[in-house]
Amino acid sequence: MAAPQDRREVILREAAELFARQGVTATTVREIADAAGILSGSLYHHFASKDEIVDAVLSTFLQELRRRYDDVLDAGGDPADRLRGLVQVSLETVSEHPRATEIYQNDAHRLRAANGYAYVEESAKAVRAAWVGVLEEGIRSGAFRDDVPVKVLYPLLRDGLWLTARWFRPTKAYGHAELAADYWRLFLDGLSSRVGAWT
Question: Rounded to whole angstroms, how far apart are CA atoms 16 and 100?
Answer without folding.
Answer: 7
